[in-house]
Automatic annotation (TrEMBL):
<dbReference type="InterPro" id="IPR022641">
    <property type="entry name" value="CheR_N"/>
</dbReference>
<dbReference type="InterPro" id="IPR050903">
    <property type="entry name" value="Bact_Chemotaxis_MeTrfase"/>
</dbReference>
<dbReference type="GO" id="GO:0032259">
    <property type="term" value="P:methylation"/>
</dbReference>
<dbReference type="InterPro" id="IPR000780">
    <property type="entry name" value="CheR_MeTrfase"/>
</dbReference>
<keyword id="KW-0489">Methyltransferase</keyword>
<dbReference type="InterPro" id="IPR026024">
    <property type="entry name" value="Chemotaxis_MeTrfase_CheR"/>
</dbReference>
<dbReference type="GO" id="GO:0008983">
    <property type="term" value="F:protein-glutamate O-methyltransferase activity"/>
</dbReference>
<dbReference type="Pfam" id="PF01739">
    <property type="entry name" value="CheR"/>
</dbReference>
<keyword id="KW-0949">S-adenosyl-L-methionine</keyword>
<feature type="domain" description="CheR-type methyltransferase">
    <location>
        <begin position="12"/>
        <end position="279"/>
    </location>
</feature>
<dbReference type="InterPro" id="IPR022642">
    <property type="entry name" value="CheR_C"/>
</dbReference>
<keyword id="KW-0808">Transferase</keyword>
<dbReference type="InterPro" id="IPR029063">
    <property type="entry name" value="SAM-dependent_MTases_sf"/>
</dbReference>
<protein>
    <recommendedName>
        <fullName>protein-glutamate O-methyltransferase</fullName>
        <ecNumber>2.1.1.80</ecNumber>
    </recommendedName>
</protein>
<dbReference type="InterPro" id="IPR036804">
    <property type="entry name" value="CheR_N_sf"/>
</dbReference>
<dbReference type="Pfam" id="PF03705">
    <property type="entry name" value="CheR_N"/>
</dbReference>
């Protein structure tokens, strides 16, 4: 207690912060710098409340002594960053529509596109809208979408496919009318992706640190955007190699605008800014 009888606010100690960030690095490769101390403290507060721990010290004792796999998953859920938007980096979807889809439409087999690090679903549902628009004009075109993330929490949100009207603002008015369901209650600001679109997307948990990703079918297109920035250079190259291993020869890899594959010896060639093709 302080002099006035008020308990000092519990804080995450430097030692426990270092232990947590090393555990996160070991389990999912994400690098948390020293500047992330406050962010980790704030996010871990959710786990303290969920488990009924009074202090960060108690929580960390539980985390490291129990080695609970369920709690490890929950830890990763609260720590991983999940920033995403509909039609984010829209030039990628223009390239997809104008160059990639006409090319892939010449093949007989259905197209598979993989949204790696899909977060709460905005990216794969954007893909589904873009591909559905193309399919309307090309009746033989068929597709499916695989969407993966390490966070079970965001995957659950993605599968519900419910978003606020503010979140769906980047979607054009015509696409909103076609692909979103609105509540009859005008005070409800939430919308939901239509069932036809939801049925095109399969969500699955995947850890980039797994030795192999083991997709049953090779995708023709992979989007792995704004995820590599959370890993060190060596881990980035390891992840990209595994992604390319899954990609069909001649397939396309899209990365985020702040990311680069320069100085990596990879079997790809750049075809546009942040867009690569497997050799």
């Amino acid at each position: 207690m302080g002099a006035l009888g008020v308990a000092h606010e519990d804080r995450l100690t430097r030692r426990d912060f270092d232990r947590v960030r090393e555990l996160v690095r070991e389990q999912c490769g994400i690098q948390l710098g020293p500047d992330k101390h406050t962010m980790v403290e704030v996010r871990l507060k959710r786990r303290l409340r969920a488990l009924g721990h009074a202090t960060y010290t108690d929580y960390c004792a539980h985390l490291f002594e129990s080695r609970s796999k369920a709690e490890l998953v929950s830890l990763i859920d609260v720590i991983t960053t999940n920033k995403t938007d509909f039609f984010r980096e829209s030039n990628h979807f223009d390239f997809l529509t104008e160059r990639v889809l006409p090319e892939l439409n010449r093949r007989a087999a259905p197209m598979l596109i993989w949204s790696a690090a899909c977060s709460s679903g905005e990216e794969p549902y954007t893909m589904a809208m873009v591909l559905s628009e193309f399919a309307e004009k090309h009746e033989s075109f068929r597709f499916s979408i695989l969407a993966t993330d390490i966070s079970t929490e965001v995957l659950e949100r993605a599968e519900t496919a419910v978003y606020t009207k503010q979140v769906v603002e980047p979607i054009s008015a015509s696409m909103q009318r076609k692909y979103l369901m609105r509540s009859r209650d005008r005070s409800n600001d939430r919308v939901r992706i239509v069932p036809e679109l939801r049925s095109k997307v399969e969500f699955r948990r995947l850890n980039f640190m797994d030795e192999a990703y083991g997709l049953p079918v090779a995708p023709q297109v992979i989007f792995c955007r704004n995820a590599l920035i959370y890993f060190d250079r060596v881990t980035q190259e390891s992840i990209v190699r595994k992604l390319i291993r899954e990609l069909e020869p001649g397939g396309y890899l899209f990365i985020g605008h702040s990311e680069t594959l320069s100085q990596m010896d990879l079997p790809v060639t750049a075809v546009a800014s942040t867009i690569y093709r497997k050799i």
